[in-house]
Amino acid sequence: MRGVNAALGAAGLAGFLALGEAVPRLGLVEEDYFPPTSRIADALGTEITDPAFWTALGDTLTGWALGLAIAVGAGIVIGVVLSVVPYLREATASTIEFLRPIPSVALIPLAVLLYGTELRSVLLLVVYASFWQVLIQVLYGVRDVDPVAEETARSYGLGTWARIRHVLWPTALPYVMTGVRLAAAVALILAITAELVIGAPGLGARIAVAQTSQAVPEMYALIVVAGLLGLLINVGARSVERRALAWHQSVRGEVTV
Amino acid sequence: MRGPLLRLVFVLGLPVVLVAVWWAASAGSKDVYWPPLRTIVETFPDVWTGERWRGDVLPSVLRLAAGYALAAVAGVALGTLVGSRRRVRAVCEPVLEFLRAVPPPVLVPVIMLFAGIGDTMKIVVIATGCVWPVLLNTVEGVRAVDPVMAETARSYGITGAARLRRVVLPSASPQIFAGLRQALSIGIILMVISEMFAASNGLGFTIVQFQRSFAIPGMWTGILLLGLLGFVLSVLFQLVERRVLGWYHGLRDASRRS
Amino acid sequence: MLDVRGLKKVYEGSGRRIEAVRDLTFTVGAGELVCLVGPSGCGKTTLLKCVGGLLAPTAGEVSLSGRKVDGPPPGMAFVFQEYGRSLFPWMRVGDNVELPLRQKDLSRARRRELVGDALASVGLADAAGAYPWQLSGGMQQRVAIARALAYEPEVLLMDEPFAAVDAQTRADLEDLVRRLWRERGITILFVTHDIDEAVYLGERVIVLSASPTVVREQLRVDLPAERDQVHTRVAPRFAELRTRVYEQIQAAKRGAATPAKADMPPSG
């Protein structure tokens, strides 16, 4: 069954690539706008021999990883503090509900003014966008803590720290992992956005340069790289999530929040 | 039971404190980038006049609505098609996973090639960026229809369109809404940056204009307005979701209690 | 009425071949209440799904009123064990009961009437506006039964419908099934692993062997039509029948434990 599915998937991918080759060749769309697969592959081949490409990839990954790390760290710490300190969760609920949906791209002009094309511009956008993903999942996870377990822990005189460590954290972990997975995808989107719009060095900036210099196949090649990067991050995050939770009775689906 | 007064304090307390702190800390600020909140608030009605609402805010919102609606319809329709055929799903899955993983903002330069810089470009950008989460979540939701429910439907002769409308789509709706929720935030991002890239009107365009001409308080009002727009859209989304998925939240609460 | 002849079902997948049902032949007369009982894992559900047209048999055939079953026939209704997953949680109770009727060519008023009548006869007349998950397990199964009744089937197939409810509720639901059967004259094929339940409910009990399933014995239950939980269950005849079925099932289990002689498919 698995083998059959993999074969079908490979066939689908091959068909997709062949379609990408055939459609411009047959003149269904203009080749200048949509180069055939082989020309994109050529351009990709040239790209990966260019050291500047690897620098750009490194820049993007730095912004992504650093931003994600800050967002995850802050999201977990703040989430736990909000849930553990009495009344803090209720007092902050409305503020979180207001701040969370603010699109982080609204901060672009501010980032430009404050930091120009520095890495900090990227970080501002990445952290703002991915922080909420983690925080919300942590809050949901903590809310899921079994009150009986919590009371048992209390009745045995476990302190706050021990309760966090042994009751709250294990329950919240699956949610945290979901939050990290979602945040990882969002962080990449915002890193590329910042580079594309602000011009901070990275893949996004390279795409913008390719666009303005009419280097269309190169632009597509870079987009393919961005897609592969996204795919790698998604698949990686999912497998980390699954491995980390293999012991857990329920690997949860996404929470609609 | 808590009194409504105390609840009000909880809801409004922190926001009021935060605004007050901002107000006080920024009062008399000489830093060009951080103008006093008072100045920003005073600038707001001057900047966002009726004309601006009509000329910039409305076009932005309309483009977002058009692109988002297109993505929702296409995503659910294609997702249902792909999700209900096992073979089709196996063939499409790797390609769809790749397309979803492409960070949507890179679509802007590509679609500009085809569609120029007009409204069409922006709507197409928003639609192509939003469609993937909706599509993939629909596929997942349609695939995961409970086998007992599917057999129940079959044994009572519920097939075809009735099955789709009354069994498959409702059963997938929690997943579909999770996708729509993700798509909404992507849509707002794309609305803004497609206007920052190339436009002659719209919220994103206006904010960048302010920033480039160093009209800092004006830029701040734009940031606030954009934040407000995000908030309002999210509230609207929640209202719709509560209505459509009322049964789902009830079911979840019921199974949590037991 | 319902004719099952030479029914055989073999599952084939990923190199393994599992013979769930070997060779089953039995009939259910019009208006009869027949219980199928067998050791757990003996392919009862497979059998019932073949009868209901939800699974295609490997060999043999099922016919309803002389017509071959090759898909869910309109004259049959199914009540599943998993009531929580068989009712649609996004529909209110009334809509759940009404849904199958929408497929039939009925006027709105007639549909309403059928729904109201069905809910009333399971004692849930005022629950039409509730969601299924707001009801207890026993009430949910009542809704599933009401849905089947409203469909006005000739044959009602019930697959261990009371296996997941508590004992008290179960007794009530058993009496409900007896009452509905007597009032409405429907033909019922009731699958269970519970011997007491089979004897208490059925007019006839068909004892199945362990998988691969064949009919081991058929017993006529000559208890009075008027049955109740207190007296019927202590009647000497009830005990005799029960013992008889029990022995048969024990024998069936032992049969499964001894090394199979002809169970393996011929090699080569």
From TrEMBL, chain A:
InterPro entries associated with the record: MetI-like, MetI-like_sf
Organism: Streptomyces viridiviolaceus
Superkingdom to which the source organism belongs: Bacteria
Protein name: ABC transporter permease
Location of the ABC transmembrane type-1 domain: 57-241
Pfam family, any one: BPD_transp_1
Residue intervals passing through the bilayer: 64-86, 98-116, 122-142, 172-199, 219-237
Principal subcellular localisation of the protein: membrane
Membrane topology: Multi-pass membrane protein
Locations listed in the record: Cell membrane
Family: Belongs to the binding-protein-dependent transport system permease family.
Keyword annotations from UniProtKB, A to Z: Cell membrane, Membrane, Transmembrane, Transmembrane helix, Transport
Automatic annotation (TrEMBL), chain B:
TM spans (from-to): 61-82, 183-208, 214-237
Signal peptide span: none
Keyword Membrane applies: yes
Subcellular location: Cell membrane
Domain of life of the native organism: Bacteria
Subcellular location, principal: membrane
Pfam families named among the record's database cross-references: BPD_transp_1 (PF00528)
Domain ABC transmembrane type-1 positions: 57-241
Bilayer topology annotation: Multi-pass membrane protein
Keywords: Cell membrane, Membrane, Transmembrane, Transmembrane helix, Transport
Family: Belongs to the binding-protein-dependent transport system permease family.
The protein's name in its UniProt record: ABC transporter permease
Protein's organism: Streptomyces viridiviolaceus
UniProtKB/TrEMBL annotation, chain C:
Residue span, ABC transporter domain: 2-235
Gene3D superfamilies registered for this protein in UniProt: P-loop containing nucleotide triphosphate hydrolases (3.40.50.300)
SUPFAM superfamilies named among the record's database cross-references: P-loop containing nucleoside triphosphate hydrolases (SSF52540)
GO molecular function, one term: ATP binding
InterPro entries per record: AAA+_ATPase, ABC_transporter-like_ATP-bd, ABC_transporter-like_CS, ABC_transporter_ATP-bind, P-loop_NTPase
Keywords of the record: ATP-binding, Nucleotide-binding, Transport
Pfam families referenced in this protein's UniProt entry, alphabetically: ABC_tran (PF00005)
Origin superkingdom: Bacteria
Keyword Transport among record annotations: yes
SMART domains, alphabetized: AAA
PANTHER family from the UniProt entry: ALIPHATIC SULFONATES IMPORT ATP-BINDING PROTEIN SSUB, TAURINE IMPORT ATP-BINDING PROTEIN-RELATED
The protein, known as: ABC transporter ATP-binding protein
Protein species of origin: Streptomyces viridiviolaceus
